[in-house]
Design a protein that fits this description.
Elements (H helix, E strand, L loop, with lengths): L6 E4 L14 H12 L3 E5 L4 H11 L4 E4 L4 E3 L6 E3 L4 H7 L7 E2 L4 E4 L3 H10 L4 E6 L2 E6 L4 H11 L7 E5 L5 H4 L4 E4 L5 H6 L2 E2 L4 H13 L1
Amino acid sequence: MADKIEAIACDYDRTLTDESLVLSKNAVVSLKNARKNGIKVFLASGRRLPFLVDTNERYDFVDVIIAENGAVIYDPANGTKILLGEGLEELRSAFADADYVNVEEVIAATTIDHLEDVKAIIRRNDLSVDIELNRNDVMIMPKGINKGSGVAKAAEINGIRREHLACIGDAENDLRMFAVAGIRVAVANAVEDLKNEADIICNEPYGDGVKEFVESLVS
């Protein structure tokens, strides 16, 4: 398998971290080793770009950052940033006064408790958007933008073909990554829907699951 995988797209929360969202040093070391072996590392997360940039500046283990659930692509080497999707101003404006919604650079985000309120705002403003769920989180995305489209664009930019791309995650929004991956990997703590679509289910949870998979590539 090692000679087939040219890039690994990895989720952050509860994949590279534990349940307390502490980053796994084991996972970081393994991904650094993957890069030494010529495998690119994409970090794909629903988190905002500044947090992910800061994390990578501290540990230097990522080639491409895909933030806001696929809506923002950033190259740490040269600082270039791409925003994906249309109707960004309309999306941000519609949720500007909803204090239970965080309006980010492209997307809007809240919790599952506010899902029906979010749907009402979408209908009232006739927004062309998609709703993505990530455990207890709700993300309102430009139409057609998700982790899969973000990872696919990053792979295209870096000349990585789908069959040479591995994606690893834990939650429902990672299903979109799986749709563009050649190898689909679920850590042991992943939700059942993701495990049902995985080619590989790790024996270990969280960052140790990432380490387990990466070591199978480069050992």
